[in-house]
Amino acid sequence: MADPEIKSYEPHHESHSAAVTESRPARAALMLLAFAFLGIFLLLPLIVVFKEAFAKGVGTYLQSLADADTRSAIRLTLLVAAISVPLNIIFGISAAWAIAKFEFKGKAFLITLIDLPFSVSPVISGLVYVLLFGAQGLLGAWLKANGIVILFAVPGIVLATVFVTFPFVARELIPLMQEQGTGDEEAALSLGANGWQTFWYVTLPNVKWGLLYGVLLCNARAMGEFGAVSVVSGHIRGLTNTMPLHVEILYNEYNAVGAFAVASLLAGLALVTLVLKTLLEMRYGAEIAAARGH
Amino acid sequence: MKRFLLGLASAAVLAVASSQAWSADKLLNASYDVGRELFVEVNKAFLAKHPGVSIDQSHAGTSAQARAIAEGLGADVVTFNQVTDVDFLVKKGLVSADWQKDFPDNASPFYSLPSFLVRAGNPKHIKDWNDLVRDDVQVIFPNPKTSGNARYTYLAATAYAKQAFNNDDAKVKEFITKLFNNVPIFDTGGRAATTTFVQREIGDVLITFESETRGIRKEYGDDKFEQVTPSVSLLAEFPVAIVDKVAEEHGTRELAKTYLDFLYTPEGQDILARNGNRVRDAAVADKYKADFPEVKLLTVEDVFGGWDKVQKEHFAAGGLLDQTYGSR
């Protein structure tokens, strides 16, 4: 399936060939490899998702999306993203701000800490919260005595999601802010702006594209997270099942159409993210490139 | 920015508040993985008789469920497919030690058994356990180290061999080793094994709970597979229990008892039988006789002397399972 695509790209590339030293067969082989890989491991599974979702017709597809538990899973996923993404915008900006604009002891440690969720398996992230907030956990008895419910309820799911998505915004902003230095802010301050004005009119516009990019990635992960959420969810139908969890449950119940219908929504969200990102880059490509320091 | 923060705070408050809404007329039933359709029907019938009540369902592997309940998942009742997972809750002090006496039939309103699913027309003529050790037969069931479903399969095969070889331990061991040798892939769970058999089309026979084979045939086509019931199998209990500690806290003991009792009523038993489970009520069992072929059912108690003993002799590290599974 990769063949025709290669052919259609060939003439386009010939016009650029002056700057490339590889021989034509080598180039063709490399491209074939890339397209075959992407085709088999990315495109084909995506097609399968939609094929399976519509295997029994559009009617059944819509019917399985109208199911009360499915709708509640969609609502919960949107709610979790709506809470955890803004939280991570605040955390991410604060962390990046602190790291990029100030000098303090333990900075390297803080950067490592921010990266932690990337290097820890999501299942472990979830288990950590169980050990912390579970009935037999560190804070379990205190939470219970005060009637606070975190695990197996929405707060636990939000916490787990915030944990795994924490690095996206911060990671995007730190290098950007570091590169921009503190010159603009110092100028603004010396001209009489207060701290808030400086942030709002100087710092934020400087990093907006990086921020937007981080938010997109953060949002995609927040909606798609499975492992950490699975551990803290409790799997209560209509209450604590997010879309990824619901996909697994439906699949385990031999409801392939239902499972892939929900999966197609998730894939759709991913595609929307991708399109948004591409549109942004097309429309504001130069600015983004400049802002991201390329 | 202010409005945005306000919205954020109210969303968080809403989330916390919504998660605390339990009351005396609301139950959470923590159940096994593939029981959703069944309990949708059960709950609908129950709620019709008890207006003003609501029931939430949680479905997952019952070992995971037991662990979650120990960590604070507020389930008032459990409807599991593994006795040992209720025993785990007993050890954690959440369920009373004599829970099996709280309801009839060992607190197991319905039961199932490891059964066979073969390809249409049964091309390899698989009829019973001894066909599974033939050289030309490939068997699919999940890894007994990780799957409760497969542990039942292992025990059922062992029970058959004990009978066939008059408790000759060496021959039983040889039989089980041969059976394991005929399994090309050990998946981690029942659903993965089903995928291997149904979608990857590996193997001649899938062994899983009889109640499962119904769902498989419904999803993948009645004409593609046939159910074969062996001459002997092991009774797999589906235990129910009130989670005493949670029910007391929520004030739901009455309702929890009424709910689980409902499973034993003719109406409840009818729903259970319609969904592929064998039931205790004689009249209902008779009505669905055609769906459930005759089979000699042995119990873990009779053949192995109880779950504690099974755990020690078979499933503990270095036990009989390790000796046969490991010698592959």
Structural class call of chain A reads mainly alpha
Classify the oligomer.
Answer: heterodimer
Q: What is the CATH superfamily of the largest domain in chain A?
A: MetI-like
Compute the number of structural domains of chain B: 2
Instruction: State the order of secondary-structure elements of chain B, H for helix, E for strand.
Output: HEHEHEHHEEEHHHEHEEEEHHHEHEHHH
Query: Which regions of chain B have little confidence, pLDDT < 50, spanning 5+ residues?
Result: 13-20
The largest sheet of chain B is: 4 strands, mixed
Which two chains share the most extensive interface?
A-B, 36 and 31 residues
Summarize the structure.
The complex is a heterodimer of chains A (294) and B (328). With 294 residues, chain A is mostly helical.
Question: Strands, helices and their partners?
Answer:
The complex is a heterodimer of chains A (294) and B (328).
Chain A: H1 3-14, H2 24-53, H3 57-66, H4 68-101, H5 107-119, H6 122-133, H7 140-145, H8 154-180, H9 183-190, H10 195-224, H11 227-233, H12 243-252, H13 256-292
Helix pairs in contact in A: 1-2, 2-13, 3-13, 4-8, 4-10, 5-8, 6-8, 6-11, 8-10, 8-11, 9-10, 10-13, 12-13
Chain B: H1 2-18, E1 26-31, H2 36-49, E2 54-59, H3 62-70, E3 77-79, H4 83-91, H5 104-107, E4 110-112, E5 114-119, E6 139-140, H6 148-164, H7 169-181, H8 190-198, E7 205-209, H9 210-220, E8 225-228, E9 232-234, E10 236-238, E11 240-242, H10 244-250, H11 253-262, H12 266-274, E12 278-279, H13 282-287, E13 296-298, H14 300-304, H15 307-315, H16 320-326
Parallel strand pairs in B: 1-2, 1-3, 6-7, 9-13
Antiparallel strand pairs in B: 3-11, 4-10, 4-12, 5-7, 5-8
Helix pairs in contact in B: 2-12, 3-4, 6-7, 7-16
